[in-house]
Amino acid sequence: MTQRSEINSDGAEPRGGPVIDAGAELDPVHPVPTPVRHRPGGLSADEVAERIARGEVNDVPVRSSRSAVDIVRGNVFTRFNAIIGVLWVIMFLVAPFQDTLFGFVILANTGIGIVQELRAKKTLDGLAVIGEAKPTVRRDGVAGEVSTSEIVLGDLIELGPGDKVVVDGEVAEADGLEVDESLLTGEADPVLKRRGDRMMSGSFVVAGGGAFTATKVGREAYAAQLAEEASRFTLVHSELRSGISTILKYVTWMMVPTALGLIVSQLVAKGDNVKDSVARTVGGIVPMIPEGLVLLTSVAFAIGVIRLGRKQCLVQELPAIEGLARVDVVCLDKTGTLTEGGMDVAELRMLDGRDEDRVRTVLRALGESDPRPNASLQAIIEACPDRQEWHCTESLPFSSARKYSGATFAEGSGRSSTWLLGAPDVLLPPGAPVLREVDGLNRQGLRVLLLARAAGALDGPDATAGARPTALVVLQQRLRPDAADTLRYFEEQDVAAKVISGDNAVSVSAVAGKLGLPGAATAVDARTLPAEREAMAAELAANAVFGRVTPQQKRDMVGALQSRGHTVAMTGDGVNDVLALKDADIGVSMGSGSEATKAVAQIVLLNNSFATLPSVVAEGRRVIGNITRVATLFLTKTVYSVLLAVLVVCSQVEYPFLPRHLTLLSTLTIGVPAFFLALAPNKERARPHFVRRVMRYAIPAGIVAAGATFTTYLLARHHYSGPGSLAAETSAATLTLFLVALWVLAIVARPYTWWRVCLVAAMGLGFLIVLAVPWLQDFFALRLVGTTMPWAAVAIAATAAAVLEFAWRWVDRRFPA
Q: What is the model's pTM?
């Protein structure tokens, strides 16, 4: 499609008036726009001030993070905080200070969560400002960048390839302006826009340029609400978070009837001492709640955001950290990802004895015919000095779909000529002699463009038919210095890398080969790929390098990989990558990429460094792997707490523990070690089925811990007698429970490093100090009486540890993750 200039010198509307798509469906959100008088110079400063005063400004609050109020509310007002808060108040009324310690732990946990999320918010908000799209607006005849929120009604906004349409409007100037509205309508084909056509916010420019007048701003603009939601920092829509929510739901169901039974049984068992009965009832209920699990998940994610922020990586959707950790295939666009954006003209090769001066003149004119030249054209402009003035009468902007651009010129001599510049294998028929020479250059990793003189008109049905090759433009691409190391990292981490590029397949193969990509020697021309999804997936599985890929094919290739169960990440920086970025499980855009790619990507590498990706992958693996570890600790506690309560109810005996005992145990075997384990390095690739993997360990561990503890308690009830017997029984049961819980921690901490061993040992030492120091014995009501029962408690714990080792090995074989 071509576009002649439709901008009259006086700004008058061309004959025919505004053009509205005949097949377009009208709706209340998008009525036919009211014609707007085109003002080439845009609004004046006074007019802008008037509109701001009237509130006609694009004030949609696009946030990169939750507000401070939302963060505080989300951490404080939780279901379990409410339960613990009520129990805490009750304990203040009926029990000593020691039995209220669990409430102070919750306060500390909540405070840590709030502080870490606020730190993450500060980091995200700062990065969002850096990465914010700044549209070019013409005011008082001068074009300048402004913030999206500063656009006012009636502003004249300039557009170029890759620019996102940020408000609704009406086309005022069009020069081959092609807009992709697929993110809004689902229609993949670009739409040619002419003066008077409507522009929809959320669409983006794929070719050509122009300007449009803003007719709807703020919340009235189409897709404004969607854009706000898509840009917002969120903790939802991740397997990890939804898995934890599922676990908490089941915990609540188990906790309510168990707690009611425990309350009744304790009132019956100790009817003469209501306060002690209430204290032991609360002691049974509190440990059922895995309150720190949600906190540590939030903290781990928040710290991940902060760490990545320091590396100039903007995480637009928090679960993207988790998602990239699950990725097993990463699709890479060559230009801008493996290579740097800029290029250099290495050589001009004349064909059939063409005049070099004339060729350079044509190339310079082609470069200047595009007001927004891409990297290839920019290199040509710099290499070809301005020789003479040619007037462009018609232009065909470059499009990733057609792989070439063109223009018709009125030459200084009065003659007219039409030229095409693009991929040689697209402009020439198969088997053309020139293609052999091009193939040799491509094998060296060089990019080659063909300059050809068109035989017909640009707007003809086949502009390339009969094109006469004139010269080859050989471009030298700049490899990213960190690309080879990054590809090597993905190989080591069992992540398959697929290079998907619109360039010649042989050239792409050469570049990938220089970077050491496995399978780079064999390149596939995407024009030969089958359209059927399963057949395409088979080709993708067998090969690693693909050239001449169209934007729609990139999208289809992502879908084909996903159809085989792969979790796919897509990186890119150009408009040809937008559809694939949107459909991929994780979209990664370069900071220098187009506004459209940054808008649909979950992760933006603001420093344009491909080498940042391993950090994102590692951060996600750290979060998921470590949360899986600590979730096992928390849920083991929940399981043994529920089972102990059930056993107590069925046996009609006093609950063995006060809140202070379980606060001590939780702190030493879960709280403190979980905090360190949650933030430790972890390179294990994330695996699915979070709930199943956690519960298959937590359930047997909880059963063993509850059984061993209750056995010790029953033996102690038969061994001790007299007024202080309950305290002695509790101490023996506490010793067994601590040792079993410590062994669970020792298993979860594997594989051992020096600091993990020290962590487990320090927790054991902490408990010994409590047993050895008299005032701590009194504070926690722990005093081992005699030697028979304490050693029996140790023996039972040792037996339970052996059973645990056997049970977890059996679970690994019987229920593999």
A: 0.68
